[in-house]
Amino acid sequence: MKHSKIEILENTPVAYSILYLALPSMLSMLVNILYNLTDTFFIGKLNDPFKVAGVSVALPYYNMLMAIAGIFANGGASYLSRLLGKKDLDAARETTTTAIFSIGIVSIFAVILGILFIPTYLKLSGSSALTALAAQQYLTAIFIGSPIIMVKFTMIQLLRAEGAAKEAMLGLFIGTGANIVLDPLFIFSFNMGVTGAAIATVIGQGLGLLYYSIYYLRKKSLVSPGRKYLHLRWPCYKEILAIGIPSSLSQIMMSIGNAISFKLAAAYSDHTIAALGVVSRVFSIAIFAFIGLSIGVQPLIGFNYGAQNYSRMKKVIKMSNLICLGMAVIFTLLFGLFPRELIAIFINDSRIIRIGTQILKAYVIAIPFAGLGMILMAALQAMGKALPAFIVSLSRQGIVYIPMLFLLNYLFRFDGLIFAMPIADVITTILSFTFVYHITKRLKSSA
């Protein structure tokens, strides 16, 4: 009898397979949203715009950390799902082992370099002294715990790639629950402010990592890592890096783009930085939901591409896009009708709420394009199409978004700044669709 996880990827009806894999991933992203919002929520209760702005300024630098982890997490996951489609379990175990071992080594260097370059990053951000101080306190604690964060993120993606979406979700629930409980304890009871928020986050991530480690050690995974699979062969790295680097590059460029947006916003006021930071967290509710859907369907696309069952793969892509558009309608209505109320949840400052409302109304335009773009990007990665994935990654956050930030801010000041991201999403989603359409049109199923 085939393993039930393989059966889900290979034979069950497409709609059921998507729901089975995507719902846990989307719930996991809901948990990630809580991770993402918890620190901002509790720090906002201090009613100190400089601390809120500090955590906001820290976000792009923290995202850079996750981008580095994404090289082995996303690249390893893409290759792993294709290997499972080919029924090559030994190579799949080698991939899991290589990805986890490699990110463990890389994370040690991330600690050292990350802490050393914090002052340089904050100087470039253009933040005021009080905002920069809060950001430095937060980032220092985060980077000390970065090995935990990076290894855990890699394990999550690898588990999802083998269809273990429920297990990936459980680990996130454990970590987020701990973070929600510990945040107010460290911030208020221990009077540690933003440092306490960072420490609570690292502890929560550590508990999640412990759960995943136990899962692997008990051999419950289809492709549990092991010492005998630690070969560190170039062909394995080549496959991981071919997808991991473009995927990571997208996140790196996004971090650079966000850092530039905060830099440009700093010319207006610290309240503008705080408002941009709060809106980014609110907008992440939609973004994480779309990410959850795209992560959920990626192993389904990759498995069937590896098995050459292209007709099933195409059905997955089409249905995922339809689900994505339905979700986009809901988020567009939510953010378009209740922007002030959503921002006010995080901070009771009339100036920040007023600026944030203006930003969120501009961002609403990007919602359907951002969602579709993520599904299409996931399809390119799952199929192992490294060059198209690289071009789209570079375009969305680099070639298109960053120049738009400078150009529109120069021409239209703040109004231009806040419309740069929606315009970039529209352009790159059209580009992604073009690639996926032409690639899938040439495929003929053998299954």
Please sum up the structure shown:
The chain is an all-alpha fold and 447 residues long.
Structure description:
With 447 residues, this protein is mainly α. It has one domain. It contains 16 helices and no strands. It has helices spanning 4-10, 14-44, 49-85, 89-125, 129-144, 146-161, 165-189, 193-217, 234-266, 270-306, 310-337, 339-344, 350-363, 367-382, 386-412, 414-441. Helix 3 runs parallel beside helix 5, helix 3 (49-85) runs parallel beside helix 6 (146-161) and helix 10 (270-306) runs parallel beside helix 13 (350-363). The two termini are 20 Å apart. The mean pLDDT is 89.
What percent of the residues sit in helical stretches (DSSP H or I)?
Answer: over 70%
Strand content: under 5%
What is the tally of helical segments? 16
Low-confidence stretches: none
Distance between the termini: 20 Å
Query: Looking at the structure, what is the overall shape?
Result: globular
Q: What about the largest sheet?
A: none
What is the total number of structural domains? 1
Q: Mind telling me the C-alpha Rg?
A: 21 Å
Instruction: State mean pLDDT (0 to 100 scale).
Output: 89
Question: What is the H/E string?
Answer: HHHHHHHHHHHHHHHH
Helix/strand class:
mainly alpha
Structure summary, number of beta strands = 0
Provide tags for this entry.
single chain, 447 residues, mainly alpha, globular
